[in-house]
Write a structure and sequence with these properties.
The chain is about 25% helix and about 35% strand. It is α+β, with helices and mostly antiparallel strands. Strands 1, 2, 3, 4, 5, 6, 7, 8 and 9 form a nine-stranded antiparallel β-sheet that branches. The protein is globular, with a radius of gyration of 20 Å. The structure holds flavin mononucleotide (FMN). The site of flavin mononucleotide has 15 residues, from strand 2, strand 4 and helix 2.
């Protein structure tokens, strides 16, 4: 194996800072503006987030999903309700999420509890998806094994034919979650590893804001 010296890879962060006085009353507003700045920075997938769930025996399980909505109290994503992550959320709805925007030298971590969205919310978002993604939602029993790629493409074509010329309905097992935000932490890279970390904890509806050492 060729020798790759990852230990010597390091970058000095100089793009910005985050002070306590920059925090709005609701820290989720700052999160929203950081997402907007990530979009404006032309990051490749500015709304990609690493989502950790908990397996039945307590081990963590992470994967990336796409952020699809933000409101005052929650963030939303969509998936398959029969997938591994959904099974894990059925038994333990606690989640942790991380965003990393290298272009802005920023990280955000969110801790919270995931709740299924309503049928109306799921229908509304499903309707807005490109047709190919709608067909894909029918064709994929997400997280279940399949014999090979050919079988998967065959399923896709069968669904395509079945719904030809018709609107594609939302599959029953497809939908979203709202993660009710309990904690949110902002990280801004700074020179000399003296990064800014502002941790916000929602206690009885009030945000407690603390600076943490980097
Ligand atoms: C950038 C990126 C975005 C993704 N977005 C989603 C998403 O929004 N929803 C989803 O179900 N899977 C998404 N995936 C696939 C998941 O990472 C994962 O493979 C899939 O959801 C199955 O996870 P599970 O078996 O833990 O349920 C995305 C993958 C990547 C790399």
């Amino acid at each position: 194996m060729s020798k790759l010296n990852v230990a010597d890879l390091r970058r000095n962060y100089t793009k910005g800072g985050l002070l306590e006085e920059d925090m709005p009353d609701n820290p989720v507003r700052l999160f929203e503006s950081w997402v907007k700045q990530a979009v404006d920075s032309e990051a490749l997938e500015p709304n990609a987030m690493t989502l950790a769930t908990v397996k039945p025996l307590g081990q963590p399980n992470v994967r990336n999903v796409l952020l699809k909505g933000i409101n005052e109290e929650s963030i939303q994503f969509f998936t398959n309700y029969a997938s591994t992550k959904a099974m894990e959320l059925d038994s333990n709805p606690s989640v942790s999420v991380a965003f990393w925007w290298p272009e802005l030298e920023r990280q955000v971590r969110i801790f919270g509890v995931a709740e299924k969205l309503s049928d109306d919310q799921n229908e509304e978002y499903f309707k807005s998806r490109p047709r190919n993604s709608q067909i894909g939602a029918w064709a994929s029993d997400q997280s279940s094994p399949i014999e090979n790629r050919v079988e998967l493409e065959k399923k896709f074509r069968e669904i395509e034919t079945k719904f030809e010329g018709k609107e594609i309905p939302k599959p029953d097992d497809w939908g979203g979650y709202a993660i009710q935000i309990e904690e949110i932490e902002f990280w801004q890279g700074r020179p000399g590893r003296l990064h800014d970390r502002i941790h916000c904890n929602k206690i009885n509806g009030q945000w407690k804001i603390q600076r943490l050492q980097p």
